[in-house]
UniProtKB/TrEMBL annotation:
Source organism phylogeny: Bacteria, Bacillati, Actinomycetota, Actinomycetes, Pseudonocardiales
UniProt domain Transcription regulator PadR N-terminal: residue ranges: 23-93
One Pfam family named in its UniProt record: PadR
Species annotation: Actinosynnema pretiosum
SUPFAM superfamilies on file: Winged helix' DNA-binding domain (SSF46785)
Protein name in the entry: PadR family transcriptional regulator
Length: 117
């Protein structure tokens, strides 16, 4: 761990590199509100807490990758629902293709087949 408690393990770095695309993939499936995203990402071991998700959603919204809508609930305050925009869906699809290529390449090297001449 480095100062401030930020973990710098390879796994933590990989998680940080993919969480944005995982959020977009979840929002491509259906609309969700932030707390729901936090729960799903935490269950899957991709984040430790909600501090990652809120700034990420704000950035994705500013980039035009997600759209939002406020909705009144039966009880409690209104909730902001997020969904992937057309640009967000396209970004997830590009990432999925790139991820498959990268994953396959890394697997070949790790499995000892990376030195084909």
């Amino acid at each position: 761990m480095e100062a401030g408690g930020a973990e710098r393990s390879p796994l933590a770095q990989m998680r940080r590199g993919v969480v944005e695309h995982c959020v977009l993939a979840l929002l491509r499936e259906r609309e969700r509100y932030a707390v729901e995203l936090v729960e799903v990402l935490r269950e899957r071991g991709l984040i430790a807490g909600e501090g990652t998700v809120y700034p990420l959603l704000s950035r994705l919204r500013k980039q035009g990758l997600v759209e939002t809508e406020w909705r009144e609930g039966g009880s409690g305050p209104p909730r902001r629902y997020y969904r992937a925009s057309a640009e967000g869906v396209a970004a997830v699809e590009r990432f999925a293709r790139d991820w498959a290529v990268l994953r396959d390449s890394v697997d070949l090297v790790i499995e000892g087949e990376g030195e084909r001449a």
